[in-house]
Amino acid sequence: MAVTDTAIEGIKQMIVSGEIQPGDRLPKEAELAVRLGLSRNSLREAVRALSLIHVLDVRQGDGTYVTSLSPRLLLETMTFLVDLHRDDSVLEYLEVRRVIEPAATAMAALRMSDDAVSALGRHLERIGEEPSVDELVSNDIEFHRLIAEGSGNAVLCSLMESLAVPTQRARMWRGLTQGDATRRTLAEHHAIYDAVRGRQPDVAAAAATVHIAGVEQWIRTALVPSSTG
Q1: Which of 12, 24, 154, 190 could make an SS bond with 20 (beta carbons 3.0 to 4.6 A apart)?
Q2: Structural domain span for residue 62
Q3: What per-residue confidence (pLDDT) applies to 16?
């Protein structure tokens, strides 16, 4: 289990056991890091991850609080780690994406209007070079939606959109725990965009394959190692 995951598990156990309740403030960072046997950097990453999924509320100058979610909703939210580590279905969704998205991207390179290609470029520019993880994932989902729409095939577009949601949390977790995830994602998006703009369907398909396969491989090795045996 990754260090960040260990920190999250420790905080989760404090909540599940009732030691800290919704609305309570977490112990001070230094105290909690010592208690969990972790570095303060690892603890900060865990707090950041849990704040993104609304389990914790970080209040500047005041401290970090457990949200006021009901115990049932809180436990349901915490199952995201179980989903990522024990449920291989996310890999199956990515396998399907790896099959169909290169074809859709090749079609987009041939069929997208000039205006749509320009809109795709503006979408990439808006995110900047150092987005937050939630901004990165939101931008990623919209980028792939625009590509799907550009394929000109409504059925394919609908299918690709249906595949985006089941892999969203995995992509969020990759952004939080893989150091170069942001840089790689943005570079791969630009490679896809350049190929679409250049009306190069084969290059666009290859770039899409590299992009999806990279996410899939990282999840195989980092999130669900049991599936690689």
Answers
A1: 24
A2: 3-78
A3: 66
